[in-house]
Design a protein that fits this description.
about 190 residues, alpha+beta, 2 domains, 3-stranded antiparallel β-sheet, two-stranded antiparallel ribbon, 6 helices, about 15% strand, elongated
Length: about 190
């Protein structure tokens, strides 16, 4: 097997779905096409998407842009793409309403100038680094298993795994963000029990 085939990015999602299927005692799938043919695989895929959106909504270095400019269209509206999870306009009372930017102070959706925003993006699962994919997979597996068979002992085991995966993801995120105790609040927003 060629190295390229071994690390084919489409296998990341299949591998994660198989982890979820394993938690409920189901047989693994081989390809993405199997998702449409196996109900449990389809539900596992949806659980991964749900966990991915939840985790990415935190705003990691990999999926956050500061000062990303959105430009008004010819009518003055700033339409927000569907792969945006959250937006913050520092110092302004601007929010997303009906997938357009809305200035609450002016009570208007019409803008004359581009607006610089902090944007949290919803990225494809396959493009995420391993620690984040693993964290998403473990969270999805814990929830998926709890919904299907509600085994308390398994739930506790995967909850511990989820905490370890979260810690590894925060550590990985810190590599690129270069957090430190002098210029950030890194590690002040979560507790490890």
């Amino acid at each position: 097997m060629a190295i390229e085939e071994q690390y084919d990015s489409q296998h990341f999602l299949v591998d994660s779905i198989n982890i979820l299927l394993e938690t409920i005692g189901e047989l693994p799938i081989s390809t993405l096409e199997d998702i449409d043919n196996v109900l449990e695989a389809d539900l596992a895929s949806k659980a991964i998407i749900e966990a991915k959106r939840f985790i990415l909504s935190e705003g990691w270095d990999i999926n956050t842009d500061d000062d990303y400019e959105f430009v008004p269209d010819t009518e003055g509206y700033i339409n927000i793409p569907p792969h945006v999870l959250d937006i913050n306009v520092l110092g302004e009372n601007i929010i997303i309403r009906d997938w357009k930017l809305y200035d609450k102070d002016r009570q208007s959706r019409v803008f004359e100038e581009p607006v610089a925003c902090q944007v949290v993006w919803n990225l494809d699962f396959e493009t995420l680094p391993h620690p984040l994919r693993y964290y998403i997979t473990v969270m999805a597996a814990r929830r998926f298993q709890a919904r299907f068979i509600s085994d308390i002992n398994m739930y506790r085991f995967t909850e511990a795994d989820e905490k370890m995966a979260m810690i590894q993801s925060k550590k990985s995120d810190g590599f690129t963000k270069e957090y430190n105790m002098l210029n950030s609040g890194y590690a002040t927003g979560f507790k490890v029990l």
